[in-house]
Design a protein that fits this description.
Protein name: EAL domain-containing protein
Distance between the termini: 54 Å
Organism: Salinarimonas soli
Number of strands: 9
Number of helices: 11
Bound molecules: ligand C2E, magnesium ion
Order of helices and strands: HHEEEHHEHEHEHEHHEHEH
Keywords: Membrane, Transmembrane, Transmembrane helix
Strand content: 15-25%
């Protein structure tokens, strides 16, 4: 009888939908296999301290080198992992690997890990973070947890308590993609963030729209007043970097400064930065 209703439903699908569904199922199957086979990798994008002209941290970004499809973008598979129950396991992998890698990096550089809104739906995330810290021995103050505004839409009381617990572990909380949510300012009022990452859409348009310069400048000033740091994301050109500096932003990240790269290349970058030569700009260093 399942067969009959299946056939009945499929008659209403537009052509192409079935093959899309099939492709999705296939991707989901591959995602499970990738977890089991530990196929995921992390790429590390440097974050620059614009005052000291040095690398002050890295953002861990997940990479999936698929055996047949090549590199699959997180923009494609993270949403799928969120719809299935796989994001918890993937998230735990990212936390464990990033903390272990960070613990081996020299100096006091920070490591930023992205948390999915789905990972914040239960309190399990507190144990996952605590366990990654404990296993790696990483100083919690070196771990930044990046949370996007979409995680904060609902259930404010519970999320606020959860974020306090994460912060209680000694980690720093970062509001990612700032300015793209529905109620960016109220999130700053309600939740205990240490850092704001200004979304790349604002940074990119600074060179063409003066209102974007004003917006980025205002966010930097706001962060400062609130005792937070602001990081400009997505800096791609020298002109953008100039403007970001001019409005007083203290940290920046983007292809101009460095692409996401394997841990060994991140390590090399830090060793290079130990020399007297200023490390900015690193255009064309690539990964
Ligand atoms: P995000 O956290 O905002 O990360 C920044 C994204 O912008 C990264 O894309 C990075 O490679 C890209 N980017 C950095 N600099 C530039 C630039 O100058 N120009 C442009 N055009 N792009 C730049 P990526 O690695 O493809 O990741 C996309 C999104 O996927 C991330 O956005 C994050 O939301 C999510 N993501 C990545 N890794 C993870 C992860 O481990 N866990 C979770 N839950 N989400 C992740
Ligand atoms: Mg991020
Ligand atoms: Mg971001
Ligand atoms: Mg983003």
């Amino acid at each position: 009888e399942a067969k009959a209703s299946g056939r009945g439903v499929s008659r209403f699908f537009e052509p192409g939908i079935e093959s899309k569904l099939y492709a999705r199922l296939e991707l989901e199957r591959d995602l499970r296999a990738a977890l089991a086979a530990e196929q995921f990798e992390l790429a590390y994008q440097p974050v620059f301290d614009l005052v000291a002209d040095r690398v002050c941290g890295f953002e861990a970004l997940i990479r999936w080198p698929h055996p047949e499809r090549g590199l699959v973008s997180p923009a494609e598979f993270i949403p799928l992992a969120e719809e299935t129950e796989l994001i918890g396991e993937i998230g735990a992998f990212v936390l464990n690997r990033a903390c272990a890698d960070a613990a081996r990096l020299p100096g006091d550089v920070r490591i930023a890990v992205n948390l999915s809104p789905v990972q914040l739906r239960t309190d399990d995330i507190v144990d996952a973070v605590a366990s990654a810290l404990q296993r790696s021995g990483l100083d919690p103050r070196r771990l930044e947890l990046e949370i996007t505004e979409s995680a904060l839409l609902e259930d404010n009381e519970r999320i606020a308590t959860l974020l306090e617990r994460l912060r209680g572990l000694g980690t720093r909380l970062v509001l990612d993609d700032f300015g793209t949510g529905y109620s960016s300012l109220s999130y700053l009022r309600r939740f205990p963030f240490d850092k704001i990452k200004i979304d790349q859409s604002f940074v990119r348009e600074m060179t063409t729209r003066s209102n974007c310069v004003a917006i980025v400048g205002a966010v930097v000033g706001l962060a400062d007043e609130l005792g937070m740091t602001a990081t400009a994301e997505g800096v791609e050109t020298a002109d953008q970097l100039d403007l970001v500096r001019q409005v007083g932003c203290l940290e920046a990240q983007g292809y101009l400064l460095g692409r996401p790269k394997p841990i060994l290349a991140a390590f090399e970058l830090l060793r290079g930065a130990g020399s007297a030569k200023p490390t900015l700009p690193l255009a064309a260093v690539g990964s």
